[in-house]
Amino acid sequence: MDDLTTALDTDLLLLDDQLTDADRAVRDRVRGFVDGALLPVINDYWERAEFPFDLVPAFAALNVAGLAIEGYGCPGMSRLAAGLVSVELSRGDGSFNTFSGVHSGLAMGSIAMLGSEEQKQRWLPAMARLEQVGAFGLTEPDHGSDSVALSTTARRDGDSWVLDGRKRWIGNASWADLVIVWARDEADGQVKGFVVERPDGDPPGYSTTLITGKIGKRAVWQPDVVLDGVRVHDDNRLAECHSFKDVNRVLSATRAGAAWEALGHAIACYEIALTYAKRREQFGRPIAGFQLVQMKLAEMLTAVTHLQLLCYRMATLQETGRLTGPMASMSKLTAARMARQVALDARDVMGGNGLLLEHHVARHLTDMEVVYTYEGTDHVQALILGREATGISAFT
Known about the structure:
Elements: H1 21-38, H2 42-48, H3 56-60, H4 79-92, H5 94-114, H6 117-128, E1 134-137, E2 153-157, E3 160-167, E4 178-185, E5 191-197, E6 206-210, E7 223-233, H7 244-279, E8 281-282, E9 285-286, H8 291-319, H9 325-349, H10 361-373, H11 378-390
Parallel strand pairs: 1-4, 2-4
Antiparallel strand pairs: 2-3, 3-7, 4-5, 6-7, 8-9
């Protein structure tokens, strides 16, 4: 492993004291995978814009898919441990963390929250073993921030549904075994969830085109999806999804995951910059000894510590069922802003070398541009908080 990426266990306020032995075991398993398998190869995959399929079996062996979901072969870990999985994966690479988050948080989370007991038994065990990989199809070419207005339609036809529409930025959807597709029921105008299965490749009417030219998250495949008369049996309609309010339950949970990811990127950037500054000499001494560099490092450490406090508190609220949508929005908004600045400061500390992929920070910096936008943009999260504060919606 590159010594720039060696974990330094940054924890100024001793928050690790809150971890149980089980939490530490999960963190250490994922860290071992990141340090031993992911970090040595990810720059090459990222530069080629290829997903590291070869790493999936080793990741599956960690037994972390499904995160906090209980039963059905899922690990049922604490919310804190689930957050640490995201921290460690994104400390290694944001693309691989997105693959994991889409599968465990969005796809498995949708089934766990909105599926019937039979549907959970049918899909979750294989997904927990990563024998089946999931995707989540909500965003559309014309509906990103206003996803509530999605235009993909579902029409009942006997014992099946016919899906028509287009989706965009759908991680894993070009190779996933299960794709959760959200569509508006033509009969009642409400949004429903459907599981499109792909056991032998694309079903009739389902096609994907990879989005290329990305500056961030290059190693995760996020295609455009076309649904042209895709037929889904009624057994594959998520039984407990009756409107977009139900979809929002999933989205609120995954916004919390985006905050943990931002923390992972911030830790990586701070620790890389700190290690680099201690060994990089200019004017006859390490740049870590210069006041301006120390000021930046102090600000970065402060930001990381603030994000740790925020995320740990958020985990406690989730564990006790008290995390609300506005709380998740504040966490995502704050974490994305602060981690983005940490990445910028780390790149600055490293000067021209910070532009090179071999030093990793450039990858984290551009990946943070994605985190800043996805799971609800900065502006959307602010409007959710504004509505909470004033009681007045600025969306309509």
